[in-house]
Amino acid sequence: MAIRRTDMPHRWLPLVLSLSALLLVGAVLAGWLLGVEVLVRGAPNRAAMVPSTAITFGLLFSGLLIHLQRQPLRGAVLACAAIAAGVALTNSIVIQLGGGGLDVLAETRAPSDRMSPGTIAGLIVAALGLAGLCSARLCRAEVPVLSAMAGLSGIVAVLFVHNFHRGSPLALPFVEAMSIYTALCLLIFFAALLLVALDPSAERQRRARPARS
User: Fold this and answer.
1) Assuming Cys at both sites, which of 6, 49, 106, 211 could form a disulfide with 181, CB separation 3.0 to 4.6 Å?
2) pLDDT, tens digit, for every residue of 19-64?
3) Residues 36-69 as b or e (16 or more Cβ within 10 Å = b)
């Protein structure tokens, strides 16, 4: 993979973060396929990262890696962002209608294992930030930076105050079904997105690009 050179001394950090997160997502999906509980929830009685969440993160981090290429395919990045947002929005509708979301076919899924409202919100913000990297208009509006900062602020607050064990009195209702793996992936994505959005060479490219999209 040809990675675009930047002025950032930490230009490899978003790449390393994205690849690490993809390994984690792959391990979660392997856990669902093989029935290994520790790979999907980390510890007994903790919320699990459901397959649809893992797939959505796979799309988001893949889109970020595509954007880091020397000649990024804007259409592919936008497709990753759009599909990721579509999965999250579909889950939000299905779950509100009383279903288990897109994960009802997972045989080892507990009834409480689902994509939480907090996860859905985080994924939609992440998808918006990813899409913003490919749009001059959204970049000028600082959408990627604002998405990254909002996401980081929210997930850091969740990590500090939320108990990730199911049914715990200290669990926040908005993120009660969120897995610790999901929280870590959101933290990694928003940190990587912020690094990419603040890339000074990318800023020069945006200013030189004609005002379109």
Assistant:
1) 49
2) 999 999 999 999 988 888 889 888 888 888 988 999 999 999 999 9
3) eeebbbbeeebbbbbbbbbbbbbbbbbbbbbbbe
> How far is it, in rounded angstroms, from Cα 56 to Cα 51?
9
Q: How far is CA 172 from CA 157, 161, 182, in A?
A: 11, 8, 15
Which residues does 45 contact at the CB level (< 8 Å), separation at least 6?
A: 165, 166, 167
The alpha-carbon radius of gyration of the chain (Å, integer) is 17
What pTM value is reported for the model? Answer: 0.83
pLDDT digits (tens, 9 = 90+) for 150-186: 999 999 988 888 877 766 666 667 777 788 999 999 9
What count of residues does the chain have? 213
Q: What is the 8-class DSSP label of residue 84?
A: H
